[in-house]
From TrEMBL:
GO cellular component, one term: cytosol
Highest taxon, organism lineage: Bacteria
InterPro entries xrefs: SmpB, SsrA-bd_prot, SsrA-bd_prot_CS
Record lineage: Bacteria, Candidatus Eiseniibacteriota
Source organism (scientific name): Eiseniibacteriota bacterium
Region (Disordered), start-end ranges: 134-156
Bilayer-spanning residue ranges: none
Name of the protein in question: SsrA-binding protein
One function term, GO molecular function aspect: RNA binding
Gene3D superfamilies to which the protein is assigned, alphabetical: 2.40.280.10
Function per UniProt: Required for rescue of stalled ribosomes mediated by trans-translation. Binds to transfer-messenger RNA (tmRNA), required for stable association of tmRNA with ribosomes. tmRNA and SmpB together mimic tRNA shape, replacing the anticodon stem-loop with SmpB. tmRNA is encoded by the ssrA gene; the 2 termini fold to resemble tRNA(Ala) and it encodes a 'tag peptide', a short internal open reading frame. During trans-translation Ala-aminoacylated tmRNA acts like a tRNA, entering the A-site of stalled ribosomes, displacing the stalled mRNA.
Length: 156
């Protein structure tokens, strides 16, 4: 297959639980610093960001608990699957994330992991945790929207 026929973005992992558990206030795209066999494992579509979160340490941002399983042909060069991985961001973006996480109740949650033009990218969301009644309200709103769409499509 010709290289230009390949889609420009390929989804590797998505954190579906994040939008259920958090109000996402803002999103930002970051590059990832990976080792060779991690990239090969990601290209096979293997990764989990369900338990992952990000922290700002000094002038750097790291993602923790992101699971990239060992590459099967990688033998002894495979790094730890849950190691701390650095995110690539501009200084102004790091400063903005630091200010956002200093506010009470805010955290950095990975939303999606994908490849764009050969580079691994991670979309981070600044999230504020939802209470159980907020979750119930979100579910009720989603169900109401779904019912309205069904009624609309049934009429036409």
């Amino acid at each position: 297959m010709p290289r230009d026929a390949e889609p420009s973005e390929r989804l590797v992992a998505q954190n579906r639980r994040a939008r259920h558990d958090y109000f996402i206030l803002e999103t930002i795209e970051a590059g990832l610093v990976l080792k060779g066999t991690e990239v090969k494992s990601l290209r096979q579509g293997k990764a989990s960001i369900a338990e992952a979160y990000a922290v700002v340490e000094g002038s750097e941002v790291f993602v923790l608990q992101m699971h990239i399983p060992p590459y099967e042909q990688g033998n002894r060069w495979n790094p730890d699957p849950l190691r701390k991985r650095k995110l690539l961001l501009h200084g102004a973006e790091i400063h903005k994330l630091r200010k956002a996480t200093e506010q009470k109740g805010n955290t950095l949650v990975p939303l999606t992991l994908y490849f764009r033009r050969g580079h691994a990218k991670l979309v981070l969301g600044v999230g504020r945790g939802k209470k159980s009644y907020d979750k119930r309200r979100s579910i009720a709103e989603r169900d109401a929207r779904r019912e309205m769409e069904r009624a609309r499509s049934a009429r036409s």
